Amino acid sequence: QVPLVESGGGLVPPGGSLRLSCKTTHIFNIKTLAWYRQAPGKERELVASISTFDYPSYEDFAKGRFTISRDNAKDTVDLQMNDLTPEDTGVYYCNTRPSSQDYWGQGTQVTVSA
Questions:
Q1: Mean pLDDT over residues 31-55, rounded?
Q2: Which end of the chain is more exposed for a tag (fewer CB within 10 A), N or C?
Q3: 47: nearest Cα among 67, 26, 28
Q4: Please, which residues have CB within 8 angstroms of residue 28's CB and are 6 or more apart in sequence?
Q5: Distant-in-sequence, close-in-space partners of 105: CB < 8 Å, separation ≥ 6
C-alpha cells in the first residue's frame, strides 16, 4: 500500500485555483516533502518542496502562484495553486525530495481548460 495519497484535482478554467492535498503518515514528518507533476507527453518534474522546518522551495514556474504547506499533526502536505494556466495541466504527485520509487501513488489529475 502506497503511503502517500493525493486528492483535490479537477477541471478548472484558466485563472482558476485548486488546492491539492496529500495524506501521508507520521514517518514522513522527518522528511522533506514535495509535489511533482507530469504533463501529457512530458517527463515528471518537481513543482515545490517543503523541509521539515517548513522552509518552502519552488520551481520558477510555480513562484508567486503556488504555495506549499505541511501539517505534521494532520500528516498532510498541501499545494495551493492560483492563477492556473493550461500549461499547468497534468497529473500531480506527492513524494519525498529526493523522490523514492516506493512512494509514487496514483496522483491527482489537474486540467486547466476553458
A1: 97
A2: N
A3: 67
A4: 3, 4, 75, 96
A5: 2, 4, 5, 6, 93, 94
